[in-house]
């Protein structure tokens, strides 16, 4: 019986290491520098785990310039760097690099009752370096996100959103993934916010539950935290 139990535990461990884990943790920080002429410099960095633990699966950094056209419209473009473990096997320490160029357009409509509706369309040109398990390749991904946000109790916000992605790769334009999320945000100070987010991520290979913790801050040109 002990031998059978040991074999079963080893088998389950091997499966957890080699297949997509059912859940992950994401930690991120977003710092934006806002200038008086309606331009912004966006920066965000993230750490994503290999399952529900602190073992890294992916690191990322994204930066870009945003232009605010009005209270409803803004657009941005920039670059990003991702370093991702080539498999979910914790014993495999090889990471592969991805470089991105990205562009997006955002629209927001606000109602007097504290609700606001956000629409975002983003294009990503993706460049993957060669790793031991595959050759280098390029891809084009299109992303559309819609979200509904409600502000309540002065310092709290709740949001429900969905983002759909399709990718063009090797002449095939296929479903890439879909993310459905619910987030709760708390203003630590004026426009300095901490968010707790639940994401249900669906891919052709399966789905994942993701818990994310995000810190957001804006700094104005005069040095004040906005």
The ordered H/E elements are HEEEEEEEEEEE
Shape: globular
Number of DSSP strand runs: 11
Q: Count up the helices.
A: 1
Overall pLDDT confidence? 90
| Uncertain runs | 1-17
Question: Could you characterize the architecture of this molecule?
Answer:
With 226 residues, the chain is mainly beta. The protein is built from one helix and eleven strands, in the order αβββββββββββ. It has one helix at 2-18, and strands at residues 23-34, 39-49, 56-68, 73-85, 95-110, 115-128, 137-152, 156-169, 172-189, 192-203, 206-220. Strands 1-2-3-4-5-6-7-8-9-10-11 form an eleven-stranded mixed barrel. Strand 6 and strand 7 form a beta hairpin. The longest helix is centred in the N-terminal third of the chain and has 17 residues, at 2-18. The chain is globular, with a radius of gyration of 20 Å. The model is unreliable at 1-17 (pLDDT under 50).
Features:
226 residues; mainly beta; eleven-stranded mixed beta barrel; 68% strand; disordered N terminus
């Amino acid at each position: 019986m002990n031998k059978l139990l040991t074999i079963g535990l080893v088998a389950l461990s091997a499966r957890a290491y080699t297949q997509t884990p059912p859940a992950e943790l994401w930690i991120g920080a977003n710092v934006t520098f806002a200038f008086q002429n309606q331009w912004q410099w966006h920066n965000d960095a993230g750490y994503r785990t290999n399952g529900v633990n602190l073992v890294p699966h992916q690191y990322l950094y994204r930066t870009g310039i945003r232009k605010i056209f009005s209270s409803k419209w803004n657009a941005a473009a920039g670059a990003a760097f991702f370093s991702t473990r080539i498999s979910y096997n914790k014993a495999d320490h090889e990471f592969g690099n991805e470089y991105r160029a990205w562009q997006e357009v955002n629209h927001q409509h606000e109602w007097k009752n504290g609700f606001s509706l956000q629409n975002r369309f983003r294009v990503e040109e993706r460049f993957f370096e060669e790793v031991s398990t595959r050759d280098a390749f390029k891809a084009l991904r299109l992303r559309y996100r819609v979200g509904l946000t409600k502000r309540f109790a002065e310092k709290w916000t709740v949001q429900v959103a969905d983002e759909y992605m399709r990718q063009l790769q090797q002449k095939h334009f296929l479903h890439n993934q879909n993310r459905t999320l619910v987030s709760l945000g708390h203003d630590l100070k004026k426009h300095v916010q901490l968010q707790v987010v639940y994401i249900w991520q669906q891919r052709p290979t399966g789905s994942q539950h993701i818990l994310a913790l995000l810190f957001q801050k804006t700094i104005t040109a005069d040095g004040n935290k906005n």
